[in-house]
Amino acid sequence: MIRMLASVRDLEEARIVLDAGVDLIDLKQPADGALGALPVDVIRDVVAFVAGRTLTSATAGNIEPDAAAVQAAMACIAATGVDYVKAGLFPPQWEQGGRDYAAVFAGLRPPGGARRIAVMFADLAPPPELVDAVADAGFDGVMVDTALKTGHSLPDVAGTEWLAAFVERARARKLLCGLAGSLRVAHIESLARLNPDYLGFRGALCSGQARAQGLDADAVRHVRDTLGALSCAAA
């Protein structure tokens, strides 16, 4: 069964997705790029509201690959009580075209208590062996997303063969795996065939399909129902 991750920015949006039966509520600030971090008090409020009724995750922020900075940010988010902390694997100067992953590999550290998900970015040309490094560092999961929110979806920047190899590699290393990145309803069927654990959504759930706008309850239910129908058909 492919599960649904929905990114929310506040308590009101968390209510909408919880009512729709979303499997993982992901807390981040969509107005601040790929992995913008929310204030810790907002995260705590949502975690308290959810109260274990579904899983929660929260991003540590858009942080350059400095091991100490990433670890500190993750520890701060972990203290809110979320089930998973998400850390982006951004190469240095990635916004200016930097694609040297040496510092990313060097910055991976053993877990500090929290369950962790590493986020790779298909449009930043991550090396496939980064999945193995994530597993070796003790992460619990890995996702692939898009870093540059310029209107291109994950299937626009990564071919089916690349995505299938990513999922296969993650599964071989026993990592929870997910696909995200400006996904639309039209992408669900083809990506579900790759059998990731999660498909992640933000823009497709929003008014006008715009990720910085508020969530639309009908859009959330439509994505949830589409995933549910695929799961039933596959059963």
Walk me through this protein's architecture.
This protein has 235 residues and is of the alpha/beta class. The chain has one domain: Copper homeostasis (CutC) domain (TIM Barrel). Helices cover 37% and strands 17% of the residues. It has nine helices and eight strands. It has helices at 11-19, 40-50, 67-78, 102-107, 130-136, 154-157, 160-172, 185-192, 217-234, and strands at 3-8, 24-27, 55-59, 84-88, 115-121, 141-145, 176-179, 198-201. It has an eight-stranded parallel β-barrel with strand order 1-2-3-4-5-6-7-8, surrounded by seven helices. Helix 2 links the parallel strand 2 (24-27) and strand 3 (55-59). The model has no long low-confidence stretch (mean pLDDT 94).
What's this, in brief?
The chain is α/β, with parallel strands linked by helices.
Keywords:
single chain; 235 residues; alpha/beta; TIM Barrel; eight-stranded parallel beta barrel; 9 helices; 8 strands; 17% strand; globular
Low-confidence stretches: none
**Strand composition percent:** 15-25%
Kindly report the CATH topology: TIM Barrel
Q: How many separate domains make up the residues?
A: 1
From the spread of the alpha carbons, the general shape counts as: globular
Report the average pLDDT across residues.
94
Helicity level: 25-40%
CATH level-4 homologous superfamily:
Copper homeostasis (CutC) domain
Count helical runs. 9
The total of beta strands comes to: 8
CATH class: Alpha Beta
Largest sheet: 8 strands, parallel, barrel
Reading side by side through the largest sheet, how are the strands ordered?
Answer: 1-2-3-4-5-6-7-8
The sequence of SSEs as H and E is EHEHEHEHEHEHHEHEH
Integer-rounded radius of gyration: 16 Å
End-to-end CA span: 9 Å
CATH architecture level-2 label: Alpha-Beta Barrel
